[in-house]
Amino acid sequence: MQGMQGTVDSMNNIGNEIMRQSAAPNLNTMKEKLESLNARWKSIEMDLQQSHEKLVYSLPLRYKF
């Protein structure tokens, strides 16, 4: 997961650099795409965290039976 965070960070850095060099009409599209990417990434992180917590919680229960 941490390796993927580096990829997302790189994409944000590159996207921000492209926006600095782009004409105004392209800025909104690029900004929207980066915001969408970041929102999806946060959602994935939250889903994985919840799955991890469920797994950690359920492992001790497995050995009770």
Provide a descriptive summary of the structure in words:
This protein has helices spanning 2-21, 24-62. With 65 residues, it is mostly helical. The protein has one domain (2-62). Helix 1 runs antiparallel to helix 2. The longest helix has 39 residues, at 24-62. The radius of gyration is 18 Å and the shape is elongated.
User: What about the largest sheet?
Assistant: none
Distance between the termini: 32 Å
> What string gives the helices and strands in order?
HH
Strand content: under 5%
Protein name: Dystrophin
Organism: Dreissena polymorpha (Zebra mussel)
Provide a quick synopsis of the model:
This is Dystrophin. The protein is an all-alpha fold and 65 residues long.
Keywords:
65 residues, mainly alpha, single chain, Dystrophin, 2 helices
SSE layout and pairing:
Elements: H1 2-21, H2 24-62
